[in-house]
UniProtKB/TrEMBL annotation, chain A:
<protein>
    <submittedName>
        <fullName>Nodulation ABC transporter NodI</fullName>
    </submittedName>
</protein>
<keyword id="KW-0813">Transport</keyword>
<feature type="domain" description="ABC transporter">
    <location>
        <begin position="7"/>
        <end position="237"/>
    </location>
</feature>
<dbReference type="GO" id="GO:0005524">
    <property type="term" value="F:ATP binding"/>
</dbReference>
<dbReference type="InterPro" id="IPR003593">
    <property type="entry name" value="AAA+_ATPase"/>
</dbReference>
<keyword id="KW-0547">Nucleotide-binding</keyword>
<keyword id="KW-0067">ATP-binding</keyword>
<dbReference type="GO" id="GO:0046677">
    <property type="term" value="P:response to antibiotic"/>
</dbReference>
<dbReference type="InterPro" id="IPR050763">
    <property type="entry name" value="ABC_transporter_ATP-binding"/>
</dbReference>
TrEMBL record, chain B:
<keyword id="KW-0472">Membrane</keyword>
<feature type="transmembrane region" description="Helical">
    <location>
        <begin position="402"/>
        <end position="427"/>
    </location>
</feature>
<feature type="transmembrane region" description="Helical">
    <location>
        <begin position="228"/>
        <end position="250"/>
    </location>
</feature>
<protein>
    <submittedName>
        <fullName>ABC-2 type transport system permease protein</fullName>
    </submittedName>
</protein>
<feature type="transmembrane region" description="Helical">
    <location>
        <begin position="460"/>
        <end position="478"/>
    </location>
</feature>
<feature type="transmembrane region" description="Helical">
    <location>
        <begin position="376"/>
        <end position="396"/>
    </location>
</feature>
<keyword id="KW-0812">Transmembrane</keyword>
<feature type="transmembrane region" description="Helical">
    <location>
        <begin position="484"/>
        <end position="504"/>
    </location>
</feature>
<feature type="transmembrane region" description="Helical">
    <location>
        <begin position="132"/>
        <end position="158"/>
    </location>
</feature>
């Protein structure tokens, strides 16, 4: 426990019907690191992250959060991690504050602590104005922000965030970036998935490239990208090439 | 355009009918086809002359058209295989799009079943000569178009009205009450059948024939009398009506495609009762879940509608069955029906949450609090209503001997329901329609036949739980020992508590072990 990594994944595998979504994925997220998971659409990012936090049962492999096995010792592991999934609903018919209060009490926090933290989170994430709006009426960006607030509420040591910047406006995006950077500086670890390479390059110190369910590169950002930009390295790694140069002669002729 | 849309619909249907969905679709289709053949049979052979046949055909056409109107509202269906939004950017005038969508709507099992049901008219016309047959064929086609178009236009109009979230909430209530209408409808059919067959009410018969749904049958009747002017006139009128409906549908399509769905910013949530809740509910994980559940039961229109309808049905059924026949007077026992229906409707609690279940799963050890909280919240809502009915109705109806019975069985059933509903919610969950966006009537997955059986079987456990109390009551009754009768009340309560505790335990252990599978089961298909 003392020096186990923030997140350790080994031999993770998930098969849906005849599709192998995740195939022998292994990763180590060191403590205090800002870890980016990048990959093309359908590469298995969301599937992998869901298995890391106990939302999807893997066919094989194991996941440990600070040494606690997510599937064998779920209570300990879940105490340490904050989760923001992508594309899942929230308890929709609560207001933002009610959602945070409910989450905090269900996690067993003291009511005063919950009230104080909810206040601060709503203020910092600029959700105070929407105080009395139900989550079902939130915009996509606001949903990301309230989701992040529920992930942060219990002061986790590891954050697992699936596409946290999607549909978030630039100002809120900057706020979230600052919060996450402070979290890492204070010793927490963040794992986020994204397909915006510039963002990952700017924000993360570690990166893993996943494609067709497999990890094809993993390590410190400088090491993975070499002397190219991360985007060029990514295109090279996933075996793609930038198309669009040939054919289509009828277009705008 | 028409050909492309029909091919597209066939392709989508064939893609979406794999596996279990295909089976349930096939069963539904089979039932529809049998109903159609029976309908057609009634028109072809019946006790009475051609006049009666025409009236029966008109009545059946009206019934099938009503089915097209209310079916989608009731089942949350509405054919959304091809969505007009998919064609919004095509440079096609709306009327042509409406025609294309109409043609595509005519592909599928329901239109074929309707066509068969209506086609009885053609067979019946065979004995009146070739002219009548031609009239009948045209009438059947126009009548089918009328049913499909009416259904499409009404659903589209409702969809336009119910675009906002508050409107959708209204729509859910509307659907719930249409579902209730079957009770009066049964009595209506019992009363009307002799009028149709016996031709005993000329007014009713002429109304049936004067409605557009009767024009086709009327035209065939006119052709049988060689009254060609009337026959052709009625066919023309039907065609014009169909045309007008196509135009109306085109207008509604344009609206659907150009007017954005209202963002539906709901009224701000009330927080005034907050202090009351804080005082009454314990500050604990279970208390937090109870608070959330109470809010959601009230704020989610689907849940509210279910509660309201179960209370209304619970009172309706005893009233109707007491009023209808000379049977036992059941109103004093309405509380039992209320509990029964309220529990029947709450057997997919995690389905209401949909993918939001993840939120519970990521919290350490939250399964127990979640299950217990849901049980308590349901009891807090249903128990007062049921107990009020149990305390008031026997007294009001003057049947005071019912008191020990009701007061003993209600707590047993309440407790058993609170246990059983959680077990079912966890063991046999199914996805519900997504809460945001889309057609207010669009359904997600439907529970299969096996689930319905499971649900029925498990619901019977409620009555098993009441057996000890009922046994005491029976002994008390026969031996005339009022003490035993009243002893049944605490026994019922104890059985109820035990069942709730035990059911909840099974549910939270299962939830903790198989949470990810539950999440997978209730996620609405994208």
């Amino acid at each position: 426990m003392e020096d186990s990594p923030a997140l350790w994944i080994s031999g993770l595998r998930k098969v849906f019907g005849s599709t192998v979504a995740v195939d022998d994925v292994g990763l180590t997220v060191p403590r205090g690191s800002f870890f980016g998971l990048v990959g093309p659409n359908g590469a298995g990012k969301t599937t992998s992250l869901s298995m890391c936090v106990g939302l999807l049962r893997p066919d094989a492999g194991s996941v440990r959060i600070f040494g606690a096995d997510v599937w064998a010792d779920p209570v300990r592991a879940k105490e340490l991690v904050g989760v923001l999934p992508d594309g899942l609903a929230l308890p929709e018919r609560l207001t933002g504050r009610e959602l945070l209060t409910y989450t905090g009490l269900l996690r067993g926090l003291a009511p005063d602590t919950v009230a104080e933290r909810a206040d601060e989170l709503l203020r910092v994430l600029e959700l105070t104005e929407a105080e009395r709006t139900l989550v079902i009426d939130y915009s996509a960006g606001m949903r990301k922000k309230i989701g992040l607030a529920t992930a942060l509420l219990h002061a986790p040591k590891l954050l697992v965030l699936d596409e946290p910047f999607e549909a978030v406006d630039p100002v809120s995006g900057a706020t979230i970036r600052t919060i996450l950077q402070r979290f890492v500086h204070a010793g927490g670890a963040v794992v986020l998935s994204s397909h915006v390479m510039e963002l990952v390059e700017k924000l993360c110190d570690h990166v893993a490239v996943i494609t067709r369910g497999r990890v094809v590169a993993s390590g410190p950002v400088e090491q993975v990208r070499g002397d190219r930009t991360l985007e060029e390295a990514f295109v090279h790694l996933v075996g793609g090439r930038t198309g669009g140069g040939e054919g289509l002669s009828w277009l705008a002729s | 355009m028409v050909g492309v849309l029909i091919r597209m619909k066939l392709r989508v249907l064939s893609h979406s009918l794999g596996g279990r969905r295909g089976v349930s679709y096939a069963i539904g289709g089979l039932v529809g086809l049998v109903a159609a053949v029976v309908s057609a049979g009634f028109v072809i052979s019946h006790p009475g002359g051609p006049e009666v046949g025409t009236t029966i055909a008109a009545a059946l056409a009206a019934a099938w058209t009503l089915g097209w109107l209310f079916g989608p509202v009731l089942t949350g269906g509405g054919d959304e295989t091809l969505r007009p939004e998919n064609f919004a950017l095509l440079p096609v005038p709306p009327t042509r799009l409406a025609f294309g969508m109409l043609a595509a709507s005519l592909v599928g099992v329901p239109p074929v079943a309707t066509l068969i049901a209506f086609a009885g008219l053609v067979v019946a016309a065979l004995s009146y000569g070739a002219g009548a047959v031609v009239v009948a064929v045209l009438a059947v086609l126009l009548q089918l178009a009328l049913a499909v178009l009416l259904s499409r236009v009404v659903i589209a109009a409702l969809g336009a009205v119910l675009g906002s979230r508050r409107g959708k909430d209204l729509g859910v209530l509307l659907a719930a009450f249409v579902g209730l209408a079957y009770v009066p409808a049964r009595f209506a059919i019992e009363a009307l059948a002799p009028l149709i067959v016996g031709q005993s009410s000329p007014v009713f018969t002429s109304v049936l024939l004067d409605l557009p749904t009767g024009w086709g049958a009327d035209a065939v009747g006119a052709a049988a009398r060689a009254d060609w002017a009337v026959a052709i006139g009625l066919l023309l009128a039907l065609a014009v009506l169909d045309g007008l409906l196509v135009l109306a549908w085109a207008r509604l399509l344009t609206r659907r495609l150009t007017v954005p769905q209202a963002a539906g910013r709901g009224r701000a949530a009330k927080t005034g009762t907050e202090r009351v809740r804080r005082v009454l509910l314990p500050v604990s994980p279970v208390g937090a879940v109870v608070g959330k559940e109470l809010r959601v039961w009230w704020r989610d229109a689907r849940r509210r509608a279910m509660l309201l309808t179960s209370i209304v049905i619970g009172i309706f059924i005893p009233v109707f069955s007491s009023a209808g026949r000379s049977g036992i007077f059941m109103l004093p026992f309405a509380a039992l029906w209320i509990v029964f229906f309220a529990s029947l409707q709450a057997t997919n609690l995690y389905g209401f949450d949909g993918s939001a279940v993840w939120h519970t799963l990521v919290m350490p050890g939250a399964a127990r609090a979640d299950v217990r909280g849901r049980q308590v919240a349901w009891l807090l809502i249903v128990a007062p209503v049921a107990l009020l009915a149990a305390l008031v109705l026997p007294g009001v109806t003057g049947d005071t001997t019912a008191y020990p019975w009701v007061l003993a069985i209600v707590p047993a059933m309440l407790g058993a329901s609170a246990g059983v509903m959680l077990v079912l919610s966890v063991l046999a969950p199914y996805p519900m329609p997504a809460q945001r966006g889309g057609n207010p009537f669009a359904a997600g997955g439907r529970p299969g036949c096996s689930r319905a059986l499971l649900q029925l079987g498990t619901t019977l456990l409620q009555f098993v739980c009441a057996i000890p109390a009922v046994a005491l009551l029976l002994i008390g009754q026969f031996d005339a020992l009022p003490v035993l009768n009243w002893l049944a009340v605490p026994v019922g309560l104890a059985c109820g508590l035990l069942a709730a505790w035990w059911g909840g335990r099974i549910a939270y252990q299962r939830l903790a072990e198989r949470g990810p599978e539950l999440l997978g089961a209730v996620r609405a298909p994208a």
